[in-house]
Amino acid sequence: MKIGLALSGGGTKGIAHAGAIKALQEYGITIHSVAGTSAGALVGALYAAGNSVDDISSFFSSSNLFDPRKFAFRRAGFLNSDVFVDHIKNYIPVNYFESLEKSLQVTATNLNTMKLKVFDHGELYHPILASAAFPGIFTPVEFNNETYVDGGVLNNFPVDLLDDCDLRIGSYVNKVEYLGDKKLKRSYDVANRAFAIGQYDKDRAKFHDCDILIEPDKLYDYGLFSFKSLQKMFDIGYDSACRALDTSSILKDLT
Q: 247, exposed or middle or buried, with CB in 10 Å at 0-12, 13-18, 19+?
């Protein structure tokens, strides 16, 4: 049986995917194919290359995202995407999809053609960077005479790329939770929540495509760059995955 794993975007909340992978390993589930967007593309590539869960966590914690040497000057973004290649090399030494231990697909948005690009062969580093190039924060990635930004613009949860799998597992880290009586006091918070609601509404239309869905609660209040909370988010991902696997009737049938 071929099992696929879809990993959503989510900034540093993507570390919760590593927690989910830890649970999958403990439950004896072997993943054959991975599809990821943005942070999910990073985690997916690290995982497909054979890195351990500890290695994936180390990738996030040692990224030094706001090192002044990574700032972009006179370019369309605050951080220069290209300088992160060296960091990726430390964990994925060979720059080709074909070198990976598992099949991998990552998405990016082509600013020239306004279409989604799915990368699954050839050079690896630039497609990963393109998939994670959050607009306005990271500079667009120039690759093969095209300009790319974050795949989440058009496909933030690429479970649809796993149609050739017998079982599809989705890890989604962008759940929008109810406000309750909480009031939003800043215009930024209103705009951010409105964007999150729109993204979530589009993404959850794909939830029914997952045979097993891992959707952690309690991640909404963490930002895209919550590096001080990596361990907490990892644990949330792990606990949520364990609950999803414990209650899955499909998994019970398999075992």
A: exposed
Structure confidence by residue, pLDDT tens digits, 65-76: 555 455 656 677
CB 62 within 8 A of CB 132: no
* Cβ(97)–Cβ(131) below 8 Å: no
Beta bridge partners, 110, equal: 115, 148
Q: The pTM is what? A: 0.94
Tokens 């999809």 sit at which residue? 97
Token pair listed for 73: 């000057």
d(CA 149, CA 79): 13
Instruction: Write the burial class of residue 239 (CB in 10 Å: 0-12 exposed, 13-18 middle, 19+ buried).
Output: middle
Minimal CA–CA distance to 155: which of 32, 4, 7, 20? 7
Q: Is 28 helix (H, G, I), strand (E, B) or coil?
A: coil
